[in-house]
Amino acid sequence: MPDGVEIAHAVPVDPAEVVARFTINDGHYAKSKGKVKTAMFSPPSHLRLSVFRVEGLTDATTAELGQAEFGDKLSVPKKVLAWATVTARKMTVHGLNFVPGSAAQPPIPAHARHADVVGWPAIEGGDLAKSKRLEMAGLLAEAATLHLV
To answer: Residues 21-56: pLDDT tens digits?
Structure first.
């Protein structure tokens, strides 16, 4: 585990805290524009968006954390290409909440810096809910800062 990544398990996420969303997909950002795309924050079908709490970490340590706890733990390990950071407040203002200390890639054990973002609109088969999730993801992408590995 990278140095400086231990924090107390399941501590609530503070609204001012910085969280990061890692990606292995270059379609999640526009490198030439330095911008994050909506896809980076679009929640998966189970509506639990994986993020890591990176408040106080250097970019080098954050990149190590992303590779060790995300990229290397995929069923087929891949290189983390980038991450987006945003304050937790930018998520909670849209009605989203955090489940801290949850498992990033079940059945992999939980990591103290991991949290799931929950509370996405969820109406079975509802186009309105999907549209609202995309709108929220777009707002988060606009507010995010892109970091390339």
So the answer is: 999 999 999 999 999 999 999 999 889 999 999 999
d(CA 123, CA 32): 36
Number of domain units in the chain: 1
The string of pLDDT tens digits covering residues 53-93 is: 999 999 999 999 999 999 998 989 999 999 999 999 999 99
Residue 8 lies in a domain: no
Q: What's this model's pTM, rounded to 2 decimal places?
A: 0.86
Q: Note whether 148 and 81 are within 8 A (CB).
A: yes
In a domain, 9, yes or no: no
DSSP state letter for 76: S
Asked if residue 96 is part of any domain, the answer here is yes
Domain range for 22: 18-148
d(CA 123, CA 146): 31
